Amino acid sequence: MIIGKAQRYKDTRSHVRAILGGERGLYVITDIDASRDPTLVRRVEAAIDGGARIVQYRNKASLEAYPFTDRLAEARELADLCLERQVCFIVNDDADLAAECGADGVHLGRDEDWQIERLAAQAAEVRPMLYGASCYNSLERAAERRQLGAHYLAFGRFFPSSTKPAAVAASIALLQQARRQFDCPLVAIGGINAGNAGPLIEAGADWIAVVGSVFSRDSLNGIHDAAAELVALFN
Fold first, then answer.
1. CATH number of the domain enclosing 79
2. Predicted pLDDT of residue 5
3. pLDDT cut 70: percent of the chain above it
4. What pLDDT, on a 0 to 100 scale, did the predictor assign at position 86?
5. Residues 6 or more apart in contact with residue 130 via CB below 8 angstroms
6. Residues 185, 191, 193, 197, CA torsion sign
7. Dihedral through CA 135, CA 144, CA 110, CA 20, nearest 10?
8. 134 phi and psi, to 5 degrees?
9. Rounded to whole angstroms, how far apart are CA atoms 216 and 46?
10. Measuring CA to CA, how many Å separate 178 from each of 68, 184, 228?
11. Is residue 107 part of a domain?
């Protein structure tokens, strides 16, 4: 079932249209694996102040440790912040949570492909959502996900990553081939920082997705400055 082509967003939020229409920049991802962080919203806001234009809520804690109600409360706070600041808000690997909190979209990895049918149902029942797909180092997977309606394709890891140390490696050559093959936004992820992002942007990445190189900073000013440094590479 093909879902959510870009034209279905013609009447939706302007910042989502911008993502689909050629905007490029910084995509930040939260890395949550423990109890709620009372500073999370302020930390994300600092990244937005630094220029981040896409925020992904990623929470890999178990449901026993981190119940759905807590995730929903946290995601709603971030969704409200992103809507206020006209930043695209994505939920990782949970189409139901994305719909419930009012997110602009959902990002699905290999183990969550089954949720594509949930996206189709939500598009019919509520509103269409942006769908991003993890493609790792596979152009074949990217073609399949694009055919199933993915609005953007994410490749990586490109460099050693503390968030996913065992993730498969992708090459700049693969990113260049993806740029020639696909007409949708491309996201590069995995161990990216201001010192190594430049070649990925030159190779065709529309969005640089980062976790630690922004959120590992120990102050709000540090988060802001790290985001701004990455954003500057697109200029």
1. 3.20.20.70
2. 34
3. 92
4. 92
5. 4, 9, 16, 19, 20, 88, 90, 104, 105, 106, 151, 152
6. negative
7. 60
8. -75, 125
9. 13
10. 36, 10, 27
11. yes
Alpha carbon distance 181, 139 (integer Å): 9
DSSP state, residue 104: S
Q: What is the pLDDT of residue 228?
A: 98
Phi-psi region at 190: left, alpha or beta (left = phi > 0; alpha = psi -120 to 50): left
User: Does residue 101 lie within any of the structural domains?
Assistant: yes
Beta-sheet pairing, 207-210 with 25-29: parallel
1 in a structural domain: no
User: What is the structure's pLDDT at 129?
Assistant: 85
Question: How many structural domains is the chain composed of?
Answer: 1
Residue 223: the pLDDT is: 98
Residue ranges, the chain, pLDDT below 50: 1-11
Nearest to 150 by CA among 194, 112, 199, 193: 112
pLDDT of residue 124: 66
- Is the CB of residue 57 less than 8 Å from the CB of residue 103? yes
Segment holding 44, helix H or strand E: helix 40-49
- Please name the residues in contact with 30: beta carbons below 8 A apart, sequence gap of 6 or more: 40, 44, 55, 56, 57, 58, 59, 78, 211, 215
pLDDT in the model for residue 126:
65
Domain range holding 50?
6-232
Q: Is residue 227 situated within a structural domain?
A: yes
